[in-house]
Amino acid sequence: MSKIVIIDTGCANVSSVRFAIERLGYDVTISRDPAVVLDADKLFLPGVGTATEAMKNLEERDLIALVQQVKQPLLGICLGMQLLGNSSQEGKSDVSCLGHVPASTSLMDTGDLPLPHMGWNTVTPVDNHPLFKDIPENSYFYFVHSYAMPEGDYTIGRCDYGHAFSAAVQSGNYYGVQFHPERSSKAGAQLIKNFLEM
Questions:
Q1: Which positions fall inside the Glutamine amidotransferase domain (predicted)?
Q2: DSSP-derived pairing of the beta strands 74-78 and 42-47
């Protein structure tokens, strides 16, 4: 049985991610202990709120250096995905992030559509990526965000809200999804299952 660990970032969606994994029949641990994190087979990095606050949390919990050491697959969720990038535009200055995905997050240009981008939207996988295996075309996922990563070579799923943006990314062993799979019904459950079984 694989060891699944949610990195304890102190963010509000840690419990809902745990319940989503447990509903699939897996045991999961929430931890920030380096020995537990580095011994895991699969890791989750959840996050909600602002990049400034989240990076401060990671620093206070000695998690920045720990996440840099990770060699196993890690899935960042919502803000957790944005933290994997180089930086995040917030207020008057950019916040330095973890630097695993060669992209910066910026305020979405949504035209006449309201911000935040909140609710259900479809995601188009790129090149039949295994993270989206057995998920029907035009499946809906649940989003809540005002900032997004642009599309790039790292994009494995795209979404459109005013303009196209990266809904899912991969850079080496680091994966990220901008939506909340733990709140995205059957499609979200299948995506979590795919990540655990990849």
A1: 5-196
A2: parallel
Radius of gyration of the chain (CA): 15
pLDDT digits (tens, 9 = 90+) for 146-157: 999 999 999 999
Question: In terms of Cα–Cα distance, which of 40, 70, 55, 48 is closest to 174?
Answer: 70
Q: Which two tokens stand for residue 191?
A: 């995506």
Helix then strand then coil, in percent of the chain rounded to 5, is 30, 35, 40
Active site residues: 78, 180, 182
Indicate left, alpha or beta for 185 from its phi (over 0: left) and psi (-120 to 50: alpha): left
Task: Give dist(CA 149, CA 165) in Å, integer.
Answer: 6
Q: Is the peptide bond before 116 cis (omega within 30 degrees of 0)?
A: yes
Query: Is the CB of residue 195 less than 8 Å from the CB of residue 149?
Result: no
d(CA 194, CA 197): 5
**Cβ-contact 157, 122 below 8 angstroms:** no
How far apart are alpha carbons 62 and 81 in whole angstroms?
Answer: 19
